[in-house]
Amino acid sequence: GAVVSQHPSWVICKSGTSVKIECRSLDFQATTMFWYRQFPKQSLMLMATSNEGSKATYEQGVEKDKFLINHASLTLSTLTVTSAHPEDSSFYICSAPRTLNTEAFFGQGTRLTVV
Amino acid sequence: KQEVTQIPAALSVPEGENLVLNCSFTDSAIYNLQWFRQDPGKGLTSLLLIQSSQREQTSGRLNASLDKSSGRSTLYIAASQPGDSATYLCASGDSSYKLIFGSGTRLLVRP
Q1: pLDDT band at residue A101 under the 50/70/90 scheme
Q2: Which of B31, B36, B100 sits opposite A100 (nearest CB)?
Q3: To probe the interface with A, which of B97, B101, B105 has the most A CB atoms within 10 Å?
Q4: In a 10 Å sphere around its CB, with 0-12 CB exposed, 13-18 middle and 19+ buried, how is residue B12 labelled?
Q5: What are phi and psi of A7, to 5 degrees?
Q6: Confidence (pLDDT) at A53
Q7: Residues near B96 by Cβ (< 8 Å), separated by ≥ 6?
């Protein structure tokens, strides 16, 4: 069964609104989670590292004020896309590793469409 | 900065063929190399993980090899089936758990 759960699986929102995506580790504690973005027919690109109890670390070119990440507990990280625009439409997916050198577990992904 | 490349970008084969997917990476200082499967519009399924100290891993009809010195990994799929049709992604893992993905190989296995 899934060990990382992501919700919602898809969302359509109006331009200018905010959308929150949740990522939960189901049977283990994850002090670190990762958020990736995938545009159509492209690969996954790391957006940010979510750290429990501290600020997220963003990759170069990712706007931290636009993509708000909160990792308030050892099993939950949230990504909020603020003031969404059509160019933010993408597939967002989270990942949580159990330990180094073990497989990475991914959520089911969230298809965001901004109209 | 690590860069991961996959070739071919797309592959179409008849059912039953054995096939090889290629992955190359520029920085050999990796902690592990993972292969994933992604079905259209879906998340990722982990297929195989090769630690930096290992040379290969096997799971059923899948075999993945790793040559750190040459910066290459291959995924071998034996006796391909239509259900194997998907996009296959390789990703290098570093000491901070981050994964750098290749652009993927879209595989179509024709009945």
Answers
A1: low
A2: B31
A3: B97
A4: exposed
A5: -145, 135
A6: 86
A7: A49
